[in-house]
Specification:
The chain is of the alpha/beta class and 485 residues long. Helix content is 37%, strand content 22%. Strands 14-15-16-13-12-18-19 form a 7-stranded mixed sheet, sandwiched between helices. Helix 3 packs across helix 4. The relative contact order is 0.14. The chain binds nicotinamide-adenine-dinucleotide.
Length: 485
């Protein structure tokens, strides 16, 4: 017998129970309570979603852009009205605090707002008289059925880096959420349903690896957006490309911050703590390495240790809590193991967050903020994505050494600099081989009207999510040369 809270698919504008008996528990990471069960949907359910999306495409692409965006205006209002309820669901299944969950949904809504500009954003270009009496046009047309494969750490926001632009451009869509956090999309698809979008324009298929593989191999799915860990991103990129698809894959990260001696200490330490310990370090833009330059080593390590020690950790539903749990017991174990490896390799423990006593949190996946100092610059803890509330400290003598340390890393998602010197700031911005740069910012998250960048092993593809890049990704350019004698 299935209980009533089994996660459903949404295919052809109907809520459907998967035929599979292969179900996983969806667990609250703060309490260990089972919230629901998620199906690992088999190929036939992906096929059904692709079929209805293919049928829907013909009429949807002919719907004028000004009409298509009316559904997005409705969606924006519905998201605003339901933001508290969605945020609570994010906290329940993902563990982040309520204010972090609300912040995530604000970013989602901003992408809907930007995509409402499609009648302008999607315009082509033209030039009269490329030769006498001959004109040339570039027209953007939608590409067909597109799909997103999303990670666990932003159950609401990440789908919105893609979906609003895809459908506003006239494509139809399939969402495959992370099987660890499928509840948020159940809520969001109830709202998409209320917008009255035509049959088959948006579809939701829950599942894991087999579900993803069917999407990647499906002949009627034209484009794939993936966000997740680097090994999966690489594999998805290769498979989707081998099946002739347009593909963009955002991967993992190891984000460094450089602290120059002329940085404002109080501001820098607060921004670093929010970046490293916010969302329990489970952000692709979380700082996980702080490089103190020269005299910054005299004040930074002690100040960041004090703030890490004071962080209030617990259930994200509690308003006083500043940091929630990590996603699974396996994740907690992996993070604790990495901390131990760092200590064994000679790192000095300034704050050890392992095995904390959290009131009411005996069954939760809690780790407190951890600070390790004197890391070996090329060692595991300085190079591996930890994806937990662990900040490593390294000291170097000058900004050149700091930038070359950053550029030696394999990831290129984000790097930030704290300074009061414009020349240092420019040098860093110019020389860092990194996609998202922050100057006196701890989390350099691009707004919806800029692309969400990422270089090196943090991104595979050329066009990123959000803004103009999303419009380029979700349209193909047709060029017309025209003469009327
Ligand atoms: P993950 O790679 O484990 O899973 C991501 C998605 O891929 C899920 O939907 C999952 O079902 C699917 N998947 C997992 N293994 C697969 C396989 N072998 N074949 C096919 N599909 C598979 O990632 P996660 O743990 O959910 O998310 C955390 C990771 O995502 C971190 O590395 C983080 O840095 C990264 N991330 C990156 C960005 C970015 O913008 N670059 C944003 C958010 C998260």
């Amino acid at each position: 017998m299935r209980n009533q809270s089994t996660i459903l698919n949404y295919i052809d504008n109907a809520w459907q129970e998967s035929v599979t008996s292969n179900l996983l528990d969806v667990t609250n990471p703060a309490t260990g309570e089972v919230l629901s069960r998620v199906p690992l949907s088999p190929s036939e359910e992906v096929n059904a979603a692709a079929a209805t999306a293919t049928t829907a495409f013909e009429a949807w692409r002919r719907t004028p852009p000004v009409e298509r965006i009316q559904y997005l205006f409705k969606l924006k209002n519905l998201l605003e009205e339901n933001i508290d309820d969605i945020a609570k669901t994010i906290t329940l299944e993902c563990g982040k605090t309520l204010s972090e969950a609300k912040g995530e949904m604000r970013r989602a809504i901003e992408n809907v707002e930007v995509a409402c500009g499609i009648p302008t954003l999607m315009q082509g270009t033209n030039l009269e008289d490329i030769a006498t009496g001959i004109d040339e046009f570039m027209i953007r047309q939608p590409i067909g059925v597109c799909a997103v494969i999303a990670p666990f750490n932003f159950p609401g926001m990440i789908t919105f880096w893609f979906l609003p632009y895809a459908i506003a451009c006239g494509n139809t869509y399939i969402v495959k959420p992370s099987e660890k956090v499928p509840l948020t999309m159940q809520k969001i698809f109830r709202l998409l349903e209320q917008t009255g979008l035509p049959q088959g324009v948006v579809n939701l298929v829950n599942g894991g690896q087999e579900t993803v593989n069917t999407i990647l191999e499906h002949p009627d799915i034209q484009a794939i957006s993936f966000v997740g860990s680097t090994p999966t991103a690489k594999a998805v990129y290769a498979k989707a490309a081998a099946h002739g698809k347009r593909v963009q894959c955002q991967g993992g990260a190891k984000n460094p911050l450089i602290i120059l001696p002329d940085a404002d200490p109080e501001f820098t330490v607060n921004a670093t703590a929010d970046s490293a310990f916010g969302c329990a370090g489970q952000r692709c833009l979380a700082a996980s390495l702080a490089i103190a330059v020269g005299g910054a080593r005299n004040w930074f390590p002690r100040a960041i240790s004090d703030i890490a020690t004071d962080r209030i950790v617990g259930n994200g539903l509690d308003e006083n809590v500043q940091m929630g749990p990590v996603i699974t017991p396996e994740s907690k174990k992996r993070i604790e193991g990495l901390i131990q490896n760092g200590i064994d390799a000679g790192a000095r423990v300034l704050v050890d967050g392992r095995f904390p006593k959290i009131q009411g949190g005996d069954n939760g996946n809690f780790i407190r903020p951890t600070v390790l100092s004197e890391l070996e610059p090329q060692g595991e803890i300085a190079k591996t994505e930890i994806f937990g509330p662990v900040l490593g400290l390294i000291h170097v003598d000058n900004i050149d050494a700091a930038i070359s340390l950053i550029n030696s890393g394999k990831y290129g998602n984000m790097a930030c600099l704290f300074t009061s010197n414009g020349r240092s700031a420019r040098k860093f911005r110019y020389e860092a081989h990194i996609g998202n740069i922050g100057i006196n910012i701890g989390v350099a998250a691009p707004m919806a009207f800029f692309p969400f960048s990422g270089w090196k092993d943090s991104f595979f593809g050329d066009l990123h999510g959000q803004s103009w890049d999303a419009v380029d990704f979700f349209t193909q350019k047709k060029v017309v040369v025209e003469r009327w004698n």
